[in-house]
Amino acid sequence: MNKPLVGAILAALLLGAGVAPAVAAEPAQPAQEAAPKADPAAKAVTFAGTVALSNCSGSVVRTPDAAPTDPALVLSNGHCLESGFPGPGEVVVDRPSSRTFTLLNASGRGVGTLRAGKIAYGTMTDTDLSLYELTSTYRQIEDRYGIRALELETAHPAAGTAITVASGYWKRTYSCDIDGFVHRLKEGRWTWKDSVRYTPECRTIGGTSGSPVIDDATGKVVAVNNTGNESGQECTDNNPCEVDENGNVTVREGINYAQQTYNMVPCIGAGSRIDLDREGCALPKP
């Protein structure tokens, strides 16, 4: 996650794409390792609704109660913010932004450019996520491009769930299962709670940061891809470690992780606006 942009690409070339962490990445040709093959029995997941950022991946998302006239939201990582990594304890809310996103169709072709009006929310405390509010509504995007936003799951996912990580940046998908959940995932200065751990097949690489993690059975977003342990180090930048309830530390070299998104839904109110004071909202506040 924390690796310098040029360093992330260099590591992918020298060490092999499968061991590079899910960090932000500068534009480059993707490594030539074949993406993991999807389970033929699983529901097909496409790129429709995903987006490419300048250095990361993302997706247009909505809550189940979102209205067609609401301003659309783009989900990515907090460490993908154009302003840089938020520090521990830092929360960004309602900050003006004119960032652009390339919207992809089902086959991964860019069909248009979406523009943010503001960073609605962003943090790397307890979780690693950003939500941009767009200048377009859900209806405008669907009418113009024929693409619906991905729906956010409202419940905690289960271990063993078949998932797909869909990277708009690389136009690649990674298929695996949820292996389990991590009480605390520590990386450098940051600590994340109840993180998703993938089975080894999801060998995500630099630039997949911010990709939606999609439940193959429902097509709903259950998490946002954010990091992985690159070289077996313990709790360092680019080498997150797992800490259980008793403080025991486990290092899983080559394993990648995501942050759950069901806990965002209570914080999104009428008009798809972020409201951190809503009942049930437990996201960190400024």
From TrEMBL:
Recorded hits in Pfam families, A to Z, give: Trypsin_2
Any one GO biological process: proteolysis
This protein's species is Streptomyces badius
Q: Which GO terms describe its molecular function?
A: peptidase activity
**Protein name according to UniProt:** Serine protease
Q: Which Gene3D superfamilies match?
A: Trypsin-like serine proteases (2.40.10.10)
What residue stretch is flagged as signal peptide?
A: 1-24
Q: Which UniProt keywords apply?
A: Hydrolase, Protease, Signal
Q: Does the keyword Hydrolase apply?
A: yes
Domain of life where this protein originates? Bacteria
Q: Which InterPro entries match?
A: Peptidase_S1_PA, Peptidase_S1_PA_chymotrypsin
